[in-house]
Write a structure and sequence with these properties.
Chain lengths: ~650, ~160
């Protein structure tokens, strides 16, 4: 499917009344640039466009609707019309605001409708793309660009899910579960009461499971945020310290010593535990006692050559070894006495025990304990060294504080708060992710997710059993497993493909300030860097979104507010060169300061297939501009002026707009 | 039969579980058992073994395999000392060996032997809580404190003098 934005018309809103047609010569060009000075109503226009395309304005509060009324106007209505081309067919969505009643309504027209329809009713095949989630991918939102790269956010993965409709897997699972619930409810089961009890139990467990999933996600995001904040503060502290040259060196040295000391503590702890895992290393008294045990057994000549087996075999004979005949009584006596001897296997173990005692304790019973003592001393020393290194590091910070640097003190205190909170959240996450103890296994209020999942499975099985829907339950579980795997595989494959494509494109766009996406994990993770400059963020976001939109079977426009404003000239040039390659229709709302280094490169890269429009308010402040309008290509309304053409676009100077 | 650890004991160690250098929950069981053997304290969970404890394993994990006979040797020594049996009293020593050892079991300990060790682990946990108080937070601090308390327990127990 191919979707193009043809244009829009606006009457009765805060922005100028105007009709904007992006077509030129009957066709939609590759690039459309709509230059609007600040305050002309770009944000209003984009909001109305978004509202028209999603159909959501009908649920807006009256207050919100009335805010769109033209200032100083008593007009009772506002009308916004968005025109799309869907596979070459025109689709018009009209958004009507009734300011008196504070209501919004829609009308739609397209070829299949055969006329104007009341309500928001675009053709069904395009409707699934006109959702909030999806629209923000091509009706570009600067905030989205930041969120795509923000760790803890999941916008990048959500974008992939939205475009490739991976939510369909979840929908199928939901439908299957609904079917099972319906069938379970319909069957009367063995007793209605028993069924109700089991259903209630299942509901209770499920509620807790959903709660803990949400709590986990929240805790994880919050912990990531806290860790990020603590890192940022530490970076600021370090930067501040580093500004004082001598302190920079001292800080680096103290940090290296602290890290080395920590390594030493870790390895010494490992060594000490290794010693303590041997009982003879625990205490001299233990190794003496074990050595005595061996000594005693040696004295007793244990294990003896005679084992219980000898007597057990003897009672099977007719005669004893002394030659006398064995009867029942004598056999019983032999058997009773045989209990005093060790079995053959036990004798074997006793030999092993004695050998091991000889091997590990030998002639020096105190040696293992001595080794443990040495390891303990070494550990204590390592801990002292670590404390000293930490103290030195603190002293470096303190030097700055003593010099009157209150900022460091504030940052340290704030950082500590974040670290403390992160630690608490770590504890909570540990509890949620832990393997269930037998105690938690049966507790429906447990925090442990695995325990809850297990309980839910059991409860579903119980309910199925009593409702006679066990077979269906099993089938649904198999289906769920397949769908979850399929979704995971699909997501993984898509992420891989998109990542490759993005890397290639980014290496072309940002050859001067290279950045590489290392993985897509919730958000876009950049290789070797935690954050990105504004230019890099925008470049990565454009590349990701256009790659994403291009990967699907469909073509979408890319509509951007101020595409080049925050970027420096070098990056502007590169982005301008690549945009026409990234998308088949690029619509940008620009201001005059974005032109240098951007629009001329964009013109060349798009092979001059560019429509230039300049829109500004018609009022007392813009009078100087009105006097310089060209002879043709001008549309004037009561409060707006739209001028077509590159020449006017390039020389438009919004500084001529008088400021009151 | 399984080595069993009290649930409250397992919770007490949860800051350390999964943290270096502890790579098996058996470490905590073992340390408690040795503390119990040192003090001579044998107990059970207040709510009984079936409700108050959970199974670990029924064998010595790989970290303890090579020293399992030494652990059994320590248990034997403790039991003989507790009963006042000299290592040279043949019948009594053999009877104890038959009681504690079961070479056909995964741990080489009989059910009675495992149960006895479980009781020492329970008693050892109570000792550690009494002496150390709050849940241990850092591995290095805990191990050093453990050694100190173990040494005190041995000193106070006439069995080891």
């Amino acid at each position: 499917m191919q979707i193009r934005l043809v244009g829009w018309e606006s009457r009765g809103f805060r922005c100028p009344d105007i009709e904007v047609d992006l077509r030129e010569g009957g066709r939609v060009p590759k690039v459309s640039l709509v230059q609007m000075p600040n305050g002309t109503g770009k944000t209003t226009t984009l909001n109305l466009l978004r509202a028209a395309l999603t159909g959501h304005a009908s649920s807006w509060e009256p207050e919100r609707i009335r805010k769109y009324r033209k200032q100083g106007s008593s007009a009772s209505r506002g009308e916004f019309k968005a025109v799309l081309l869907v596979d070459g067919n025109e689709v018009t969505i009209e958004l009507l605001f009734d300011y008196e009643n504070g209501e919004a309504s829609y009308r739609t027209s397209h070829q299949r409708a055969g006329g104007l329809l009341r309500g928001w009713k675009p053709p069904s095949e395009v409707r699934k793309f006109l959702t909030d989630q999806f629209i923000r991918l091509f009706l570009f939102d600067g905030e989205l660009a930041e969120k795509l790269l923000e760790s803890g956010e999941h916008e990048a993965e959500k974008a992939i899910d939205a475009l490739f409709q991976l939510y369909i897997f979840d929908s199928v699972v939901r439908k299957a579960e609904e079917r099972w619930k319906r069938q379970t409810k319909e069957k009367t089961g063995k007793t209605a009461q028993a069924r109700t009890l089991r259903q209630n139990k299942l509901d209770e467990i499920d509620e807790q499971l959903q709660k803990m999933k949400a709590a986990r996600e929240e805790a994880e995001q919050e912990k990531e945020r806290r860790d990020r904040e603590a890192s940022k503060l530490q970076a600021e502290i370090n930067e501040r310290i580093d500004r004082v040259g001598q302190l920079r060196e001292e800080r680096k040295k103290a940090e290296a010593e602290r890290d080395e000391a920590q390594e030493k503590v870790s390895s010494q702890t490992q060594e000490l535990l290794a010693c303590l895992r041997s009982p003879e290393g625990m205490h001299k008294a233990f190794s003496s006692a074990i050595a005595n045990l061996k000594g005693g057994m040696d004295t007793l000549k244990l294990p003896s050559n005679t084992t219980k087996q000898f007597f057990l075999e003897l009672v099977e004979q007719e005669e004893c070894i002394c030659g006398s005949e064995l009867d029942e009584e004598s056999r019983q006596t032999i058997l009773d006495k045989s209990e005093e001897f060790l079995g053959a296997d036990t004798s074997g173990f006793v030999n092993t025990l004695k050998n091991d005692i000889g091997k590990y304790i030998g002639d020096e019973p105190n040696a293992p304990f001595q080794e443990a003592e040495e390891q303990a001393s070494a550990l204590t020393e390592a801990m002292d060294a670590r404390a000293s290194a930490e103290s030195s590091l603190r002293a470096v910070h303190q030097q700055l504080v003593d010099k009157g640097d209150e900022r460091i003190k504030e940052w340290e205190s704030e950082k500590e708060k974040h670290e403390k909170k992160a630690e608490q959240l770590e504890g909570l996450l540990k509890k949620i992710d832990s393997s269930p103890s037998p105690e938690e296994a049966g507790n429906p209020k447990t925090l442990c997710l695995k325990a809850l999942r297990d309980q839910k499975q059991e409860a579903e099985k119980d309910l199925s059993e009593i409702a006679g829907t066990l077979k269906l339950r099993k089938q649904i579980d198999i289906l769920k497993g397949i769908l979850e795997q399929a979704q995971q595989d699909a997501r993984s494959q898509l992420k891989g493909d998109i990542l490759e494509e993005c890397r290639t494109k980014l290496s072309e766009i940002l050859s001067f300030s290279p950045v590489e996406i290392s993985e897509i994990s919730g958000s876009l993770r950049l290789k070797g860097q935690d954050g990105a400059s504004v230019g890099q963020t925008l470049a990565v976001a454009y590349t990701f979104l256009t790659t994403l939109l291009g990967e699907g079977q469909h073509q979408f426009p890319l509509i951007v507010d101020s595409p080049a404003n925050p970027i420096d000239k070098t990056v502007r040039r590169e982005i301008a060169g690549v945009i026409p390659k990234l998308t088949d229709q690029f619509v940008a709302f620009t201001i005059s300061t974005e032109r240098p280094g951007f629009t001329d490169h964009l013109h060349r890269a798009a092979d001059a297939d560019v429509r230039y429009l300049t829109l500004f308010r018609k009022n007392a402040n813009t009078r100087p501009l009105v006097s310089e309008l060209p002879g043709d290509g001008v549309q004037q309304t009561s409060d707006g002026i739209l001028v077509e053409g590159r020449s006017y676009f390039e020389q438009f100077d919004d500084k001529k707009i008088e400021v009151e | 039969m399984y080595f069993r650890m009290r649930r409250d004991a397992r919770n007490w160690f949860d800051n350390l579980e999964g943290e270096e250098p502890f790579d098996t929950a058996f470490d905590f069981y073992y340390l408690c058992a040795v503390a119990g053997i040192a003090s001579g304290k044998r107990t059970g969970p207040p709510e009984g073994w079936s409700k108050g404890a959970g199974d670990l394993v029924d064998y010595f994990p790989k970290q303890y395999k090579s020293r399992s006979s030494m652990v059994i040797g320590l248990l034997l020594s403790a039991e003989l000392a507790r009963l006042g049996i000299e290592a040279t009293e043949k019948e009594e020593v053999e009877a104890k060996l038959n009681n504690i050892i079961a070479p056909n079991s995964p741990s080489n300990l009989s059910d009675a032997g495992v149960h006895r060790l479980n009781e020492y682990a329970s008693g050892g946990y109570e000792l550690l809580v009494e002496k150390l108080g709050r849940k241990p937070k850092f591995s290095e601090d805990f191990l050093l404190a453990f050694r100190e308390e173990l040494a005190s327990a041995v000193e106070e127990n006439a069995t080891w003098q």
